[in-house]
Each structure stands twice: as C-alpha cells, then as structure tokens.
Design a protein that fits this description.
Elements: E1 8-12, E2 19-27, H1 31-38, E3 49-54, E4 61-70, E5 81-88, H2 90-100, E6 106-108, H3 113-120, H4 126-137, H5 141-151, H6 154-178, H7 185-208, H8 213-219, E7 221-226, H9 233-241, E8 259-265, E9 268-274, H10 284-299, E10 302-308, E11 327-332, E12 351-352, H11 361-376, H12 387-405, H13 411-429, H14 435-442
Length: about 450
Amino acid sequence: MTDTPEPTIFALASAPGRAGVAVVRISGAAAGRVIDAMAAPRPDPRRASGRFIRHPESGDKLDRGVVLWFPAPASFTGENVVELHLHGGRAVVAAVLSALGRLPGLRMAEPGEFARRAFEAGKIDLAEVEGLADLIDAETDAQRRQALAQASGALSDLYDGWRASLIDALALIEAGLDFADEGDVGARTFTEATSVIKVLAQAVIHHLEDGHRGEILRDGFRVALVGPPNAGKSSLLNALAKRDAAIVSEEAGTTRDVIEVRLDLGGLPVIVSDTAGFREAAGAVEREGMRRSQAAAEAADLVLWLTDASEPETALPPALAPLAERTLLVLNKTDLMAGGEPPPALPDDMVPLSVATGDGLDALVRRIAVIASERIGHHAEPALTQVRHRQLVEACRDNLEAFLAGASEDVELRAEDLRQAADALGRITGRVDVEDVLDQVFGRFCIGK
C-alpha cells in the first residue's frame, strides 16, 4: 500500500490588501501541474518568466504576472514550489485564489504550514523557525539583526556544538562501561568526560547569566512612568509617542489604567507605560489604578519617577523603594519655576525637563536609549530569545551539574545525566521529539508562511 501524498497547499504569501505586487505561493506534489493548467509552459527552474495567469476551467485571463518554478528538493519547503507574482489588486488576488481552489488536490494553507513543511523536510530547524517568526514581527533594527542571526542558524550552531560535546562525553562514559573489565579504562574515560563537561557547564551558565537581554530585545525594553498625580506623566507619554495617546487633564486621578505606546529609540524597541498617580487614593477605582501602576513598575526594566519642579518629591513611596536601583528621577515643569528662583537641590542623577516646551526631552530620550542599550548590550554571541529556550538550557545546566556532583561509581546514572542534558538541547532545535510544541511554534505565523 502506498502512502497518500500530502495535499498541495496555496496561500497569499504577501501582505493582504491593495498593493503593487502580490505573491501567491503553492507547495506540494501538484505545484507543477498548477503552472500547466494556469500559466503553461513551465519556465526553467528558478527563472522568472512573464505569463498570462488563466482560469484552469474556462481559460479566461485573470492577470498577467511573473511565474517562478522551484522543483523539489531545491525549494523553501523541500517540495515542488510555485510562486505567482501578480498585480496586487484585491479582485486579482481573489480571482487567482478562487481558481486555485478549483484544482483537484489543492487546498488553502493553514497558518505556518509552509514553514512547518520546511522544518519537516529538514530545511530549517525549530530555533531557525522561531527566528524567522521573530524576523517577520521585527519592528526595530536591533530586533531585525537578532532575529536574522537566529533565523540564519547562529543559535542552532551554538546548541548543536554543545550537544556534540555532550555526545562525545557520553561516548567516553559508555566506552568505559563497555571495557569495565580492562583495568583503568573506565576511570580514565570518566575523567576525560568530566573535563569536557566542566568546560561545557561553565559555557552554559555564562549563557544563562545574560540579564535576559535577548528576551528584552525581542519583546521590548519596558519603561514605566510613575509619580504623583499631575506630575505630567500622560503629557510625557504623548510627547514621546508624538500623538495624543493618553488623556491629559489638570484633574488629579484622570489616569486610571495603564496605557502603553511602542517606540523605536535608536533601533531598540521600547514600550513606555503611563500609570495612575501615587497618592492617598480617594476611592476604590483609583486604588485599583495605583495597584496596576505598581505592577507595571515592578515589571518594568526602567522606572521613571516623574515629579513636579514646584514641589519635587524625590523620595520614592515605600511600595516602590525596592525598585530604586532601576529608577531614574525626572523633574518636570521646569518652565514654571520663577526666573530668579534658585533651582531646588536635586539628586545628581535627576533629569530636568519641561514637557510643555520640549526643553530636556531629547536629553531624556537619549538617556533612556543609553540605559536600554546598556541593558540589552551589543554582544557577538547569540542570546536566548524565548522562554522555551531558557527553560531547556536550564534543564541542560541542571543535568550537567548533577553529573559533576554525582558519584563517579554510579556510571549508569552519570550517563543518564548526560543523555537528558543532550535531549534538552536537542528539543530547542527539534533534533529530538518536539511534537508537543510544534503547534504553538508554527501557529505564530500568518497564513502564507
């Protein structure tokens, strides 16, 4: 009995909506027959050719575009792949997709199905797939660089190298088991394996102690604007966003919920949150707003304590005192200070500005960008970018430490420590069974990817 071939899938691979060019991708065994039916003759592989795109049943012309033919296995998915580059009008795209649906053996692709087929064909590994998803979602230059490095295999190469060292050490342990009756062979191979694991364990620990820089860059550096009511937090948010993102009012307690805007500061993704003012709350709603403000501050990578120049409150409230090390003091409304009035005594690290006039705003933005850059860093080695990766690397570290701390006489248990460490690394790239995470990973993609 022969296996039934997977259906050939198709989808719009470019962004939906009106555009100059739209790309429709087809992948599967019947992809070549799509050209035969709708844009014959087949062009030379990987050579763009102009064709009329016709309805497979009526022969009506649907568009004039460009056809690309990628025979298996030299394609993104490892299958036969066709790309139709069309004019990007909605009617053109709808007509071509409808016509494809009339061909036997074809169906619309599910989200991430092209990438999943590429993974299953061994064209890309799971870490590269996640890097590809991050590259599609990248909003800043720094995110683009990190995602491109991961999609190009930088993280996979690191973990595959570690896994190869683990397998070499495991081979030494198992060789000692096989030749246990031959003098000191077992002790010598165990010592050699231990030397390898000591070096590897230090590399893994160093990789984990990165301040979560890769995850922060991927998700965004979080800045919380906190301070007393009417200090100008909402005005500062609007000034940073260059739009009216938050309601501004002289009435205390106007901001009740956390409002966020995403910024690109020097190529770094920064998420700024406006929060409710800290004071003796007048009611239950305002107290809830303060609770959310504190939660936003605790989750932030940087807290800006904003205070009024006329009555500067430089001391953090007790609830925020534990966050002092990652808090930057900001003195707002400096334009309202009397001309002859000496400035109040301020902490050395306090940033003065006037949101109303814009004085000091650029300096504050530069300061935030410097702090974010220092936290995220510019490192040559690839960084952890996913919670899933961190958990598996931590599992690898734990098993390496168990190996080093365990009794050398229990050779079978020490061998199992190394197997579990290798399996943890293998699950990051998909070298071992990862069926339980595939739907989660590929579900992030849009339909045409």
